[in-house]
Amino acid sequence: xxxxxxxxxxxxxxxxxxxxxxxxxxxxxxxxGLLDVPEGRVRNLGTxxxxxxxxxEEQLPRALADKSPVIGVVAGVNDLVGxxxxxxxxxxxxxxxxxxxxxDTLVFTADYADIPAxxxxxxxxxxxxxxxxxxxxxxxxxxxxxxxxxxxxxxxxAEWARPGMWSPDGLHPSARGHQRFAxxxxxxxxQATAGAPYDQRCRExxxx
Length: 208
Description:
about 210 residues, alpha/beta, Rossmann fold, 8 helices, about 45% helix, about 10% strand
């Protein structure tokens, strides 16, 4: 049984940090290590350039077919820097979190950091992107509060304003950024589960 499932874009895929074998090694395997989840019980569905619409259409059905006790979803940046449609964006978030959340599942996500500050774009376009990111954060917070989904407050974390947290492209976290995110998620899960590693909690509840 999958114990940790991750859905989303290249942030979830792990771009920006590589492991010893040269493959992407982002926050998902790092979080699995912190939660004592064996590698074979982790499934990462994150894909490069995925939008929330693609998560709904391609990743969500797979996650629902084999629902794990811990599910992480981080997506939306590709919507914001591309063809942004606020209504569609909000509806997709509501669909994703509404269908994944439940009494037997701990779902977490994160709001959006000030990525526009990292990008070499004209000032007017950066201002537009920041407006979109601010609106997206409002929508995300409303949906997570309504569905009971845990949300890592990346936007308010001053650490993410430091250059060392990002890879040279400014879009993806560095190894340090991925580690920071994994640690923050583990802390949030620990608080929500009375401090017990979630994999241990699953065993105590008789799950295999």
